[in-house]
Amino acid sequence: MVITISLLINLFLSFLVQKQDGQVYTITGNAQGTTYQITYLQNDEVVVKNQVDSILNKIDSSLSLYKTYSLINQFNKSDSGCEVDAHLIDVVKKSIATYEKTEGVFDITIKPLVQAWGFGVQAVKSIPDSSEILALRKCMGSKMLILNKNILQKSNSCVQIDCNGIAQGYSVDVLSNFLEKNNIQNYLVELGGEIRVKGKNSKNKQWTIGIERPADGADFLPDQQKIYINKGAVTTSGSYRQWRIEGSKKLTHIIDPRTGFPVENELISVTVIAHDAMSADALDNSLMVMGLKRSFDFLSNMKEVEAFFVYTTDDGLIADTATKGFYKFLN
Amino acid sequence: MKRRTFIKNSGWLAGGITLSNSFRSFGIMNDHQKINIGIIGCGDRGKGIMSVMKDLKNIFNVVAICDVLDFRFTEAKKLMPGSNLRSYTDYRQLLDDKNIDAVVNATPLYLHFQISSDALKAGKHIYHEKTMAFTIEESLSFIKLVESKPRQVFQVGHQYRSVPLYGRVKEMIEKDYLGKVTQIDCRWDRNSSWRRPVPDPKLERQINWRMYKAYSGGLTAELLSHQIDFINWAFKSTPETIIGTGGIDYYKDGRETFDNVQVVLRYSEGMIGNFGATCGNSREGYIFKIKGTKGTVELTVNEGFYFPESKTRKELETVDGVTGATKIEWTKEGGIPVLKEKSKDGTWYALKEFYDCIQSKKLPSSNVYTGAKTAIIVKLANESMYQNEIHKWKPEYNIVKK
Predict the structure, then answer these.
(1) DSSP assignment, residue A185?
(2) Residue A233: helix, strand or coil by DSSP?
(3) Rounded to a whole number, what is the distance in Å from the CA of A126 to chain B's nearest CA?
(4) Which of B6, B20, B127, B372 is most buried (most C-beta within 10 Å)?
(5) Residue of A39, A188, A212 lying closest to B324 (CB–CB)
(6) DSSP string, B254-278
């Protein structure tokens, strides 16, 4: 009898363990000109690829500059603004808040400049001169955006917005929320290198995220800084993947909205850890523009945001540094 | 180049040759000038090099060919229709042609030394096919001769040294991705006779020179030498013990060189290289595996894959996601591609290097010093299999650039 009970207990326990571990489900696909990967642990396949693709399509219809019919393109073409959906409302609200917090370093009204520098949807024949930039900057400034319930207005008809600096992070949040609504407590969502996680991975450990340290380029496998995290978002902005050679100059795709010119500072990449991916994504771009010293000053006033920087030293070597709180993610 | 084109266009061809001779003699050339090439030996290899040079026509200009067999001229000229190739049956006449900057020596092994010695003396740069020399004496004499002509480039056709894929593998070995390497497995197998068709029985020995010990080092020299040379390069080493075995095991057709060979090389750092070739099975064809405590590299002719050992694999798989980083892409078989793209034919890279070395007067990565060591190993391996003896590497073979 004792044996039978202990057997039953064992069976029950093993059932519990199985219940807790669940199955690992992975969904991968293409969206927003990049790839995505979702890994979650659950007993049943409660979220499938079709659902994910449908959510991402909906976001594209709202935020993508590459879809002619998207709401963002309708807004950009309009003289005074238009009705927008919940996706655009969320993104614009967050963008305006970040614009204010960063004193104009993050600004979605940058679209005419991004286009002029040749990093927009259309190709360009030449790079803009100072007078063109001055003219374009008259159409810039998130203060010219007014959100009134579901109507997004512009105070100058030439104002156009580009949410690419925040859209991927936002998408990651939308997908994460969708997983949580389906009672998934252990997941990793990644889209274009922007990540959000919760809980534990299949080895019942914290999620491990690799951040590339662009070393000498000769390495067969990339040199990765590993971080361990059980809740929150990790995103990266870098100047080493997207750039263009113009004459003898290497232009990065990161443009300083305050000057109108591509950023030239020591930063190669910035990785931000924050509560949600949209916040992290908006910040990583802002920090890339600010440069190393201003980034540290800026972050010293922020709670629950950490950052890891890869930069070029005065001697031309590649080095990395991070905020104090970042180091606790290394173990 | 412009100068010559102008003169040709003016119809003063003879004058043009004289004029350009003064610029061309003894390897003095204008910057970025096309190299005028003479091909000596228009068998399969010579023609193969010609067709690669056709792809590199912005840097090479094949102007002359030489072979002792007439029908080879027709074959070679077909490769370059419309070109005005001069043909020679005596290589010495080709060497006298002052308009030729460099020659390709793609002749049978027993002729390598004589022809390239004469070419060096004639002031030519040389792309010299492997194996560099037939005997140990020739290998050592080559060094003195090449050293006496410091302005001329002498590159040996162990082309792996020029191929980025193999360069990356060397780097992986140096950076310890493989851990301690103990075993190397190479094969170069086929299920065919390795003979070339002979239109007239009198030409048998000339066309099928690879079958005869007086002319050829057999499968060891023609095939295995590539991987043997790569291991020398990648591990900065030479074997201390050389063992060879083999026989005429299937094609008992009058050949003298073996149709089935195995060479075992033991290196002082504790590593065994197995280099084999048979004419009696094609299942594996070409294999090249370098096996270490952390992982294996498997190479095909134009691709390479890294297979980490299970412990290494676990370390690599600890990342669940990457931000601002490159994801590791695994193949179905559990490998990671060494390079993202397939390589071109190795000769293409080797000839590019040859051109660069002529322009910059650099020592090629496959040079007389490295070529001599590989030629000595090939010779000792063949002696081992013919005489049934084990050979030891001697200190006098450790030739280095002064």
Answers:
(1) -
(2) strand
(3) 29
(4) B127
(5) A212
(6) S--S-SEEEEEEEETTTEEEEEEEE
Tens of pLDDT, residue by residue over B93-139, are 999 999 999 999 999 999 999 999 999 999 999 999 999 999 999 99
Task: Supply A101's token pair.
Answer: 């917090």
The CA distance from A153 to the nearest CA of chain B, in Å, is 34
User: Which chain A residue has the Cα nearest residue B305?
Assistant: A220
Token reading at B397: 């073979």
In whole angstroms, give the CA distance from residue B85 to residue B387: 45
Output the six-digit token pair for A127.
């790079």
CA B155/CA B174 separation, integer angstroms: 24
**Six-digit token string for A64:** 């993508």
Which residue's structure tokens are 């100047």?
Answer: A239
Taking the CB of residue B385, how many other CB atoms lie within 10 A of it?
A: 20
d(CA B85, CA B93): 14
ipTM, two decimals: 0.78
Say if residues A172 and A94 touch (Cβ distance below 8 Å). Answer: no
Burial of B114 (0-12, 13-18, 19+ CB in 10 A): middle
304-323 in chain A: CB under 8 A from chain B: none
Q: How far apart are CA B35 and CA B126, in angstroms?
A: 11
User: Residue A125 — pLDDT band, cuts 50, 70, 90?
Assistant: confident
Surface of A (166-205) touching B: CB under 8 A: 188, 190, 193-195, 197, 201
Could you tell me the pTM of the whole model? 0.70
- Report the relative pairing of strands A81-83 and A231-238 from DSSP bridges: unpaired
pLDDT in tens, B19-77: 333 344 444 444 458 999 999 999 999 999 999 999 999 999 999 999 999 999 999 99
Chain A hits for B168, Cβ within 8 Å: 220
Q: How far apart are CA B138 and CA B375, in angstroms?
A: 9
d(CA B224, CA B219): 7
What is the number of helices (H) and of strands (E) in chain B?
14, 16
Question: Quick one: three-class SS letters along B67-89?
Answer: CCCCHHHHHHHHHCCCCCCEEEC
In sequence order, the 6+-apart residues with CB closer than 8 A to the CB of B209 are B108, B109, B110, B215, B216
- Rounded CA separation B14/B249 (Å): 57
Question: Is residue A40 within 8 Å of residue A47, measured between CB atoms?
Answer: yes
Nearest CA among A199, A174, A203 for reference residue A186: A199
Inter-residue contact B1 to B80 (CB < 8 Å):
no
Q: Angle at CA A257, nearest 5°, toward A252 and A259?
A: 85
Assigned token pair, B311: 């412990």
Contact B276, B186 (CB under 8 A): yes
Integer Cα distance of B370 and B162 in angstroms: 13
- Tens digit of pLDDT for each residue in A219-276? 667 667 889 999 999 999 886 655 555 565 556 778 899 998 888 888 988 999 999 9
DSSP state of B6: H
Q: Which two tokens stand for residue B69?
A: 């067999």
C-alpha distance from residue B178 to each of B74, B169, B298 (Å):
49, 10, 11
